[in-house]
Amino acid sequence: MLERLLALQPAVQEYVGKRRMGEAGLALSATQWTLMRSLVELLQPFEMAVREASAADASLSQVLPQVRYLHIFLQQIRLRFESQAGEGAGSAVRLAESLALQLSSEPRLSEMFHRQEYVLATLLDPRFKGRMDAILPLGSDLDHWKQLLVRKVKELLASPTGCPSSPWIAQPGKAFCVDAAPQPREAETEPHWDRGPSGKSSTVPPLIQKEKTLTEHLESVGLLASEGRGASLPTESHSACVMVERYLRDNQTIGAREDPLGYWEKRHWLWPALAKLAMLYLSCPPSGAFSERIFTAPDSPFSERRPPQGESTERLVFLRANLGAFPDYPPPPLICSENDSAGSSSGEEGTRPA
Known about the structure:
Blueprint: H1 2-7, H2 9-19, H3 30-53, H4 63-83, H5 89-105, H6 107-112, H7 116-123, H8 132-135, H9 142-158, E1 194-195, E2 201-203, H10 214-217, H11 242-249, H12 260-266, H13 272-282, H14 289-296, H15 311-322, H16 338-351
Antiparallel strand pairs: 1-2
Helix pairs in contact: 3-4, 3-5, 4-5, 7-9, 12-13
């Protein structure tokens, strides 16, 4: 809404001038327009994160890198606001500082950096495995997560069912703090801006480019592996499992918009147990948007009913998402409850001709 209002700023100001609304104190001041523009720039990556996490092809592995990017972005945008002149600059800086404080003090976000399903999913994504030291908080024991990955593969190989133990176990840990973040790398330092003779910014490139996804923006701050930087992760102290060691040493990566499951599909023959574990973690969606869309779809048999809870919901979502791949499979009949059957019978009797 604010973006739309900013796009219509000339037309709004012209309308206000013709109606003389400024005399009644109804016109927006130049400071308010500037603050509105700063607010849009400040919230843009958060809107992108929500939209991308709700996509049908979203993966659990993108959560931690994107949250880490939001911390870095707030540091960069605060420096940019501080370098700008004008009455609204101070208010914009305070907005950035307030949002950064809320982001770093949110316990649910801090907990995710210590939950094994999030960390292992990120480690199993070839786009992020080589940047784990920059994604995790300062002081995180990366060796612990490597050993845990090795243990999970061993459990899978030893399991008669071919499934590891449940990965959805919370790991206790310290809160994630922006002040405790790793020292900025070359990509995380304040960007160089062309300055005019007065020393003020003349042309400031935007931090967020709309034609890119938020995942693609991670490369600019060193959170995404690329062909030029490599994707391998050192494994000198890890020789317990050759399968995990060779994966972590593999320097091949994929693009920011590519599906990490495609990487593992091509390497299933090479590391079968590890590929199966990766499929388990990377196929988990980061949000419940997909299942909510199923139950609220117009053609869904559950749209007018209260959806079942627990395991039944998970099975119904799976069927809804996968039955389209089997066009010859006849859909099962919709079973109504006793109350619905009674209501239907009474309705039929009421409409039967005498």
